[in-house]
Write a structure and sequence with these properties.
41% of the residues lie in helices and 8% in strands. With 653 residues, the protein is α+β, with helices and mostly antiparallel strands. The protein has 5 domains: 1-96, no CATH class; 99-194, no CATH class; 254-410 and 567-607, no CATH class; 441-564, no CATH class; 619-653, no CATH class. The longest helix is centred in the last third of the chain and has 20 residues, at 633-652.
């Protein structure tokens, strides 16, 4: 009883002595309002009261809501993340859902990372997070509604036009003088201060250089002399940048440091970054953290390895056709990063894949890709040494954060562009190099392996009896599941058995859990299988792609499971990027705008109750795995069993 009374006395001192009610009363007078928002655990700034004594009673009995270290709804500005008030709320934190309706807390998480030029506009968001949707509305605020509607837009793939029509309809249905934007443009403008920085860097159309740093003011390429701007007969020679016309080529750079700071500002994500260290470990290979490469990095760079929050990236890039039409030759190149500190079920999810660069088409950069990677490499070097200071919301402390590129993930042609290695010719294998044994066939035509996850019938041409447009995962599923069935009863047994063994090999290497003791037998089996294939297929079948199969097990031994290092998740994500294209004349601009908007909405989902994450789709098995439902005949069987039991009990009576 003594401790309880002492606790209540402390809360009472915080409410009155620290000035909360004084701040709230002053804010009410300044705004000309007759009510005060109540920030207790039960009300969570969603209920208002005219009597300040009632608010004081709530706070004494229930305590302040989670993370209520700054009274933003009552016009206090954030001074320190570690205010003394938070110590009285520890007992109540566990009872709150991770997704709590506290937009002001979300804004405070971002406040330290807002650029100075955007700070004034960002402060207006605090007002929008408190402003009722319409006069007398007790449930929704202006910012809350806009974020919820944008979440629906992103989850359902609505176009900007349809979203504008919806906003107009809702605006007409709501009371007059409501605060709801009436167009997609106004809604995006409202969220604009929450967006990450995007750099638009001009480039030489022949991929020679970027106009940045000491070359930022040049008008011509220092290598080839090509103009920086698109030229036509009406272009005037002028020093005014605005009159020089549009740039000939553009690189969009989305700096990764602000993204990482925002990641750690969310306590839930900051905790997930530690998963690779806090997990239970056994003898099996389940994650790249189980690989010798991970351990070698820790032992070679001990300072980096000691900080478990330091991130290891996977880097991937490939060309995409933003129009989704095979008749167009326009190629856009996104550069993507994944985070290997996360659990294996989140590493490759849409939410945690970051687009860092977008290279404008219509032509691919080819071997000049290094020119466009320069801004990203500079940031990676900075993150490697000396690092950057980052606030960790999970531990509530600042730390020196560092990061590195753990591995690259590409198809074979892009691998050659990235590393400057020739993937054609006699020494095309980057592992065997000069030891590659090859045979030149002067009259052969090259066989390129074609390759289920997509709708297979859309990829089949019955006229030409060919498969078109297959991605890496389509090839895998076709190889691992469909070919063994398709060839049954068609080919001679010895050939069918050999092909089936190859298919089973691809099925095994994609396992989520691998026993390291079986890897040696897998390696010897695939070499034997390839030797058997040489007995049944002509030499033209055996290009470098078939040869590379013999090195897959070696990569598993060194770097971890295949499913965390193959192209399919990135190819699937590139399909998402293509869906952002709204303006066919500016496809890259549409992609960047769509990505930036979704990035804002995705982060907000952890602070808004009742919305689904865009980048982490719900499993179709969700619910059944925890016993909340059954399928098929099981449900009817349970009902019938209960019904029969009721009849038997009735008969006994």
């Amino acid at each position: 009883m003594v401790e309880y009374e002492r606790h209540n006395a402390d809360i009472d001192r915080v409410v009155t002595g620290c000035g909360f009610l004084k701040v709230a009363e002053e804010n009410r007078v300044n705004k000309g309002e007759s009510y005060i928002w109540c920030p207790c655990v039960d009300c969570q700034n969603c209920r208002m009261y005219t009597d300040s004594a009632e608010v004081q009673e709530h706070l004494i009995i229930c305590g302040f809501m989670r993370d209520s270290i700054c009274w933003s709804r009552h016009r206090e500005t954030l001074v320190n993340h570690n205010e003394v008030v938070s110590e009285f709320n520890d007992d109540n934190n566990d009872s709150n859902n991770d997704k709590y309706d506290e937009l002001s807390g979300m804004l405070h998480d971002w406040e330290d990372n807002v650029a100075e030029k955007d700070y004034e506009h960002f402060q207006k968001l605090f007002h929008d997070s408190e402003k009722p949707l319409y006069t007398g509305c007790m449930k929704y605020t202006k910012l809350f509604v806009v974020l919820k509607l944008f979440n629906l837009k992103a989850n359902n793939g609505w176009s900007d036009t349809s979203f504008t029509n919806l906003l107009k309809l809702l605006n007409d249905m709501l009371p007059q003088y409501n605060e709801l934007p009436i167009s997609t443009y106004q809604a995006k403008k409202l969220m604009c201060p929450m967006g990450m920085e995007i750099e638009r860097i001009h480039a030489c159309p022949k991929d020679c250089m970027l106009y940045r740093n000491q070359y930022a003011d040049l008008d011509k390429c220092i290598t080839c002399g090509t103009s920086r701007y698109k030229q036509n007969n009406h272009t005037e020679q002028t020093t005014d940048v605005k009159k020089k016309g549009p740039p000939a080529k553009v690189l969009w750079y989305l700096p990764i440091v602000p993204k990482l700071k925002r990641l750690f500002a969310n306590a839930k994500d900051a905790k997930l970054i530690r998963w690779h260290y806090d997990r239970k470990i056994d003898e099996n290979i389940r994650h790249v953290a189980d690989s010798p490469q991970w351990r070698n990095i820790n032992s070679s760079f001990k300072e980096f390895g000691r900080e478990i929050r330091n991130i290891r990236f996977g880097l991937s890039f490939d060309g995409i056709n933003p129009f989704g039409s095979l008749s167009s030759r326009h190629i856009t190149w996104p550069v993507l990063l994944c985070i290997y500190n996360l659990p294996p079920w989140l590493c490759m999810k849409r939410r945690y894949i970051m687009m860092s660069l977008l290279i404008q088409g219509p032509k691919q950069p080819g071997n000049d890709i290094d020119v466009y990677l320069a801004p990203l490499i500079e940031d990676i070097k900075k993150l490697w040494s000396p690092g950057v200071e980052v606030y960790d919301a999970y531990s509530g402390e600042n730390f020196q954060f560092r990061a590195m590129i753990y591995c690259t993930i590409n198809d074979f042609p892009a691998y050659g562009n990235l590393f400057g290695y020739s993937t054609k010719g006699a020494n095309a294998c980057p592992i065997c190099e000069d030891d590659t044994q090859s045979l030149w066939l002067s009259n052969c035509k090259k066989n390129v392996p074609s390759g289920y996850s997509a709708n297979i019938k859309k990829l089949v041409s019955m006229k030409e009896l060919k498969l078109f447009g297959m991605k890496s995962h389509d090839c895998h599923v076709l190889m691992a599941h469909m070919i063994p069935i398709a060839i049954y009863g068609i080919l001679p047994d010895r050939i069918r058995h050999t092909i089936t063994k190859l298919c089973l090999f691809f099925n095994m290497i994609h396992s989520k859990v691998i026993d390291p003791e079986v890897l040696d037998s897998w390696e010897s089996d695939i070499i034997l299988t390839l030797c058997q294939l040489e007995m049944y297929f002509p030499p033209s079948f055996f290009d470098v792609m078939v040869h590379l199969t013999s090195h897959i097990v070696r990569e598993i031994k060194y770097c971890g499971p295949v499913f965390l290092r193959y192209m399919y998740p990135f190819e699937r994500y590139m399909g998402v990027l293509k869906g952002y294209v709204r303006n066919r004349h500016r496809p890259e601009g549409s992609i960047v705008e769509g990505y930036a908007t979704e990035e804002i909405i995705e982060y907000c989902t952890d602070y808004i109750q009742g919305v689904d994450s865009i980048g982490i789709p719900k499993s179709r098995h969700e619910g059944r795995l925890v016993g909340s439902g059954t399928i098929g005949l099981k449900r009817s069987f349970q009902i019938e069993k209960t019904y029969n039991l009721h009849i038997l009990q009735s008969d006994n009576i």
